[in-house]
Amino acid sequence: MPTSRPPNKSLPPKRPKSRSSSGTTRPASPRAKAKSSSKSVSARPRWLRWLALAAAATLFVTTLALTTAGFVLWYFSRGLPSAESLHQYAPAQTTRLVDRNGELIGEVFFERRTVVPMSRIPRVLVLSVLAAEDADFYHHSGMDLPGMARILWKAVVNRRATQGGSTITQQVVKNLLLTPERTLSRKLKELILSRRIEQELTKDEILFLYLNQINFGHARYGVQEASRFYFGKDVEKLNLAEASLIAGIPQSPSYLSPRTHPEAARKRQSFVLDQLERKHDLYWDDLPLDEIKRARKALPELSPLPDLSERAPEVAQLAKQVLVEAVGADKAQRGGYTVTTSIDLALERKARAALRAGIDGVKTRLGKRAKSRPDGAVLVLDWRTREVLALVGGYEAISGFNRATQAERQPGSTFKPLVYALGIKSRRFTPATQVIDAPGVFDQYKPGNYETWSYAGPVRIRHGLAQSINLVAIRVIEELTAPAVVTFAQQLGIDTKLEPTLPLALGASGVRLSELTNAYATFAAGGRFAPLKIVKKIVDASGRSVALPKQEPAREVLTAAESYVMTSLLSSVVQEGTGARAKVLDRAVAGKTGTSNQARDAWFVGYTAQLVGGVWVGFDDYRALGAKESGGKTALPIWIDVMKAAHAELKPVPFTMPGGVVTARIDPGTGVLAYEGQTDGIDEVFLEGTVPSETARPPDVADPTTFMMEQLGGTGAE
Fold first, then answer.
1. How many CA atoms lie within 13 A of 434 on its CB side?
2. Is 523 within 8 Å of 465 (Cβ atoms)?
3. Is 377 helix (H, G, I), strand (E, B) or coil?
4. Please, are residues 97 and 341 in contact by the beta-carbon 8 Å criterion?
5. What is the DSSP letter of 21?
6. What confidence score (pLDDT) does residue 146 get?
7. Cα separation, 620 vs 267, whole angstroms
8. Which of 293, 458, 661, 699 is the most exposed place for a label (fewest CB within 10 A)?
């Protein structure tokens, strides 16, 4: 049998024979020969051709996919934030304002957040968050591909976008580096950045960012604020039951809050505990199963909602101003500071209650005439440190107009001690100096005594201050000159512009309660002026102290001896004068009442050997309080209630006489030294070198004189 061989392509193929219809054979046609040859050649290498085509197509698709992926990666990587920036994580944090005992007064925040290191976050909370949000966090490289596939499948099946599937790393990207918009481009950027973050940061660093950044509802961000808000404790003190309840909230802060949706929160907590138990062998073997079971049975008790109402809003506002001055507006807004104020919050509350009670009493006395109630202010401070212990700027506990530091009101007779203090300092007057209480006209100014048409003639300075006699104060300021009194008042810390005229002695120029109270504190402090202090210290988020703004330096305005003489004079106001009600405190008290013209303002400012306080009451529109209202009736009872509270745990202490003061027995009628054996003589204090040299005459040798005085009327302030 002849062997077959492939056709020789170099030679034309032989023409096959063909048969005619008659059975005879004839040659095949050229077209038939060509068709036959084509079939025999192409039939054998077809699989090779398909393989080549498939390979080419695969190469093309792969190249196209890689090129497209590369282009997409390049395109969406443009302008992305740097993952390295997360090393400088400095989010907006809460600034806490606390009183001197650490009790919260108020908070300042753009976002209420307090960043805490991982070392403070308990293991039970870390595990609970991982169980709730990303159990495989420590085992993936930033993306949960199976989870993303499941979410994509659900989206296809449900024909709508589905949330979820994000790892903790992706959530860090979304919260810190990208906007929260739900678009394909943002998702691609999120995946790119997630991979970069996993390469740049450790897992613990990523978890630190997440735990301090996420929202736990009610505008609380981060685990520390969540722990404080829900359980009233620092995060490191959480147990598993509490931690698992908190860990479930971030999935939907609005609907999983245990405060507003307790059943949903409890259900979510059960899921977290189930996850902890189901995946117990994953990487939390250090969490005993028994502890998980106990947490299931426990019912975490939420702390009472924090109540920041009536917590010294005026103090909070002042403390914020100090913070801004200390660190700048931008840093202050970013927060993270703890500002410790000098305020005693318990005393602050009692001071506001006393002010309200006093104001309500005025309104009751006014009866139907009162279309509105008056307002007022209270200030209490430690005169040794000038730390403010209580500051109440009005009847309502709202931030706004602070009457203690902003209202400029006529102080009436509470200004007189400043005039007398300059008289003592100048050595022109002593407590025993006699001044004429008689009507007169002073450069067209015709003052009168408060609520009286009577005049006493020559009276000692002590009696004139105790009884708040206007004409005595006018004659003293006339001797000293009004401009000199203005200068002296400025040295005592009165910054409000004062009119250098004789009516200044009667409190005709407005002052602030804070200024006048601090001036009295200078008397109590032995003549040493110092500015008021509302902030004791500031620490930043890392616990480092912040330098406080520089204040006006302290200065010596009076000597200790001069101040003691003034304290002695002001003690007479309480012992025998217009401030007699203050004797109820049963301790040494020095102070002065004040009532402006037509009783538009009622004052009392006074001090003990420990504290100084001031009270003002009046209508904001300057209406009269009422014909029978006065400093002694309106302001002093409030002052007494406040100072009782302030001294509740302080033992009575007398005023101590310093060196440079001497005591001499004088004749009360003339102010000179008492004669030997004078039975009605009184002891008086003097600065050394100012004791009277003259001695009173005994009655049997006295040369009586008659004092003639016109009975002229007049009006004036107390």
1. 15
2. no
3. strand
4. yes
5. T
6. 64
7. 55
8. 699
- Tell me the Ramachandran region of residue 549: left when phi exceeds 0, alpha when psi lies from -120 to 50, beta otherwise: beta
The one catalytic residue among 128, 166, 257, 413: 413
Quote the tokens at residue 606.
């006074």
Question: Torsion-angle region of residue 583: left (phi > 0), alpha (psi -120 to 50) or beta?
Answer: alpha
Which tokens sit at 54?
Answer: 């498939």
How many CA atoms, within 13 angstroms, populate the side-chain half-sphere of residue 547? Answer: 4
- Identify residue 325 by its one-letter amino acid code: E
The enclosing H or E element of 683 equals strand 682-687
Q: Report the half-sphere exposure of 92 (CA within 13 A, side-chain side).
A: 13
Helix axis angle, 203-213 to 223-231, nearest 10°? 40
DSSP, collapsed to helix, strand or coil, labels residue 232 as: coil
pLDDT at position 453? 63
Element spanning 387, H or E = strand 387-392
pLDDT at 286: 74
Whether the model clears a pTM of 0.90, i.e. scores above it, the answer is no
Number of Cβ atoms within 10 Å of the Cβ of 188: 15
3-class secondary structure, 125: helix
Give yes or no: 20 in active site. Answer: no
Other CB atoms within 10 Å distance of the CB of residue 161: 11
> Would you call 107 a catalytic residue per the annotation?
no
Angle at 555 between CA 549 and CA 558, to 5 degrees: 150
- At 86-108, the pLDDT tens digits run 888 889 899 999 999 999 998 88
Alpha-carbon distances, residue 386 vs 383, 452, 535, 536 (angstroms): 5, 38, 11, 11
| H-type alpha helices, 160-288 | 168-176, 184-200, 203-213, 223-231, 240-247, 262-278, 280-283
* Consecutive H or E run containing 648: none
What is the chain's length?
A: 718
Q: Which of 128, 133, 468, 629 is catalytic?
A: 133
pLDDT of residue 474: 96
477-483 own/partner pairs: CB under 8 Å, 24+ apart: 477/419, 477/502, 477/504, 477/505, 478/442, 478/502, 479/423, 479/428, 479/429, 480/419, 480/422, 480/423, 480/426, 480/428
Q: Could you say which residues of the chain have pLDDT below 50?
A: 1-28, 30-43, 74-76, 78, 161-162, 702, 704-716
Which residue type does 37 have? S
Amino acid at 458: P
135, 282 Cβ separation under 8 angstroms: yes
Residues 6+ apart with CB under 8 A from 275: 131, 132, 135
Distance between first and last Cα of the chain: 151
Q: Which residues pair with 26 in a beta bridge?
A: 18
322, 339 Cβ separation under 8 angstroms: yes
Strand partners, 182: none
Q: What is the pLDDT of residue 199?
A: 85
Residue 696's identity, in one-letter code, is A
